[in-house]
Structures are given as structure tokens and as C-alpha cells.
Amino acid sequence: MALILTCPVCGKRNGYEFRYGGEDKGPRPAEAGLTPAAWCDYVHMNKCTAGVLKEWWFHRDGCGSWFTTWRDTTKNLEVAQPEASK
Amino acid sequence: MVAIKRQSPVQFKVSPRNTEVRDNWTVALEYDEEGRGPWLADLAHKTRWDLQDSKVGEQRPCDLAVPATPGSCTFANDTLVNRMNRTQTSVYHLGAAAPALPDFAGYTDVTESTVFLALFGPKAFHIAEKLSALDFLDPAKQAPFLYQGPFCHVPCQIVTLEKAADGSGGFLLTCSRGYGDSMIHAILEAGSSLGLRPAGENRFSAWIRGLQE
Q1: pLDDT per residue over B37-60, tens digit each?
Q2: Is B116 left (phi over 0), alpha (psi -120 to 50) or beta?
Q3: Distance separating alpha carbons of residues A3 and B201, to the nearest angstrom
């Protein structure tokens, strides 16, 4: 099934208009006391969740917005924010 | 002294019957055998601005209000103001006059960096459907409205100015200048079975006048 994503500016659009921006890993870690290993983990390590995941997307062929949304990686469908994450 | 010559990014294979030099652009006014539509008009010479400001909604380009919602447009006095997002608006001047850029740092003149085309007339949207997955005839949308999305797989700004359920009406399209020749080729190829022909500025101006009456 084709992926449909909801851009905050343009609304629902074909997934081919977007570029994947990776998992949302939360805010950049504070530099005070940051070890190289912790920084490496933040930059390179992913959860690769089989299920609902918060991700960054870029509306490359449209308005140029970066935004986050939730996607079920087992079905490749955009889903509502899970209650547990609110 | 060498005279400045401003060159449109697109060229039709047929030559216009009447032309006029305006602000260093050679403007095609009329073509032979323009037919009964649909038509494709090159509007590269029409002045276009981008306006960017953190409070863009409070700006008044050419005394027109900037719409509050992204995707909405204001169209009056031959000027079209299109809200793109929270901070950006595009302004198209569709009349013959080329207004001076306002004395405000948020404006950028993008006239010579973009392609600017109008596809209008009967079955115009039947041609658009061949080239884009965007829903120009969405009954929930009232013309004029702005889409930012792919047309011929190229990121474009597309403003639908008029639409009818039978696929007639028309829209304006802008994209980066480098896509000009490919865009013209693809649109004319898609419209060949529907009688699409190049049209001059006169026919475009008559359509625009009709929309504002």
C-alpha cells in the first residue's frame, strides 16, 4: 500500500513527495560531560522499532517543511500519536 | 552601449504573429492558429516576488492582504498573493505593468529565476491530470488556491485560478528556470491529443480580466 503522509502545511500527500529524515531521537544531548561514545550513540544508533515510531520527514517536492510524524513500520502507514507517548 | 535582453527560459517551436518589447523582454502577444483551447502561455516576463518575514501576515504587498492560511490566495487588481507557509508568501503581478520592488528587505525578485506558465481553457485539467497526482478539482477547495507539489515530477508552485467539474478552467505554474524546456515539452506532449496550443499574452489577459469581473 502506498504511503500517505500529512504535511503540516500542505495536508495529506503521496509519500513519494517526501524524504525520510530518520528516527526522532529527541533533543541534542547537552555538551557538558558528553562522552564520545554517548555522542556516537546519539548520532549513529537507531532503535529500528518494529511498530509505531516517531520520525522526521522533509516535504522535498512540496513546501520544504521538516516535521515529525508517527508511522507503523510494520504496515508502512502513518498513524496517530500513541497515547503512551503523550 | 549594449542593450539588455531578457530571455524567457522556455521557447515554443512556433513563432508568434505579434510581439512587443517591454522592459527588455520580448513579449509574445498573439500566435497564428491559437485554436479554441486549451492554451499554454509563457508569462516569464510577469514580475514575481517572494516575501519572507516572521510576521508575513502583517505585510500588505501592493495594498493587498496576505492570506492567513497556507495554500490560500488573494487575487485583485491583477495581483495574486499566495501564502506558502508561516513565514513566506509569493506575489505574482499578472498585469502589463512591472511594479518596482518595495523598499523592504523581505522582498526578493524571482522573475528571472523561475519558469512562469499559464495552462487554461477547456479541458485544461485533463492535461494536468496526466502530469501530476495533485487534485486540482478537489470540490473542497475554492479557487484561487495554491499547491506546492510535483508537476512533471518537478517541485512547483501551482495556483488554480478557475476550475469547473468538466475539467475546464486554468492555473499558473512556476518552477526553477532550468526545467523550462523539459516542462514545455512534457505539457505540449500531454496536451497534443486535446488540441493544446501556445497562446500569447492577449488571450491570457482576456481570461484574467474575465475572472476579475
Answers
A1: 899 999 999 999 999 999 999 999
A2: beta
A3: 41
Q: Do A10 and B155 touch (CB under 8 A)?
A: no
Residue A62 Cα to chain centre, angstroms: 18
> What is the distance between the alpha carbons of residues A12 and B102, in angstroms, rounded to a whole number?
35
The whole-angstrom separation of Cα A56 and Cα B34 is 48
Q: Where are the alpha helices (DSSP H) in B54-179?
A: 124-131
- In the numeric block, the cell 492560511 is attached to B69
What residues of A are in contact with residue B138 (Cβ under 8 Å)?
A: none
Instruction: Write the residue in B133, B149, B153 that is nearest to A10 by C-beta.
Output: B149
Helical axes B180-191 vs B124-131, angle rounded to 10°:
120
DSSP string computed for A8-28: TTTEEEEGGG-EEEEE---SP
Handedness of CA B137, B114, B213, B21 (dihedral sign): negative
Measured CA to CA, the distance from residue A64 to residue B76 in angstroms comes to 27
Note the pTM of the prediction, 2 decimals: 0.91
Q: How far is A63 from chain B (nearest CA, A)?
A: 5
Interchain pair A10, B133: CB under 8 A: no
Q: Taking CB atoms and an 8 Å limit, are A17 and B147 in contact across chains?
A: no
Query: Which residue from A minimizes the CA distance to B153?
Result: A61
**ipTM reported for the complex, 2 dp:** 0.84
Structure confidence by residue, pLDDT tens digits, B76-109: 999 999 999 999 999 999 998 878 999 999 999 9
Q: What one-letter code names the amino acid at B132? A: S
Distances (CA, A) of B64 to A6, A34, A59, B109: 30, 52, 29, 18
